[in-house]
Amino acid sequence: MMWPMLAIALGFLGLVVLAVPAVRVFLEVRRLSAQVAEANRRVTEAAGDLERAASDLARAGRAASR
Hints:
The chain has 1 helix and no strands. With 66 residues, the protein is an all-alpha fold.
C-alpha cells in the first residue's frame, strides 16, 4: 500500500515542479506581448509622423519649383 501512495505523491510533486516554470513562462510571455504591442503602437505613430513630414516636404518642393 505504501508504494502506490508514494507514486501518487511523487507524481503530484512532479506536476507542481513543472507547473511553477510554466506559470513563470506564461507571465513573461504576457509581459513580452505587452512590450511588443507598445513598440508596434510607437512604430505606427512614427510612420504616421514620417508620412506627414514627407507630404509636407513634397508640397514645399512643388511650391519651390513653380
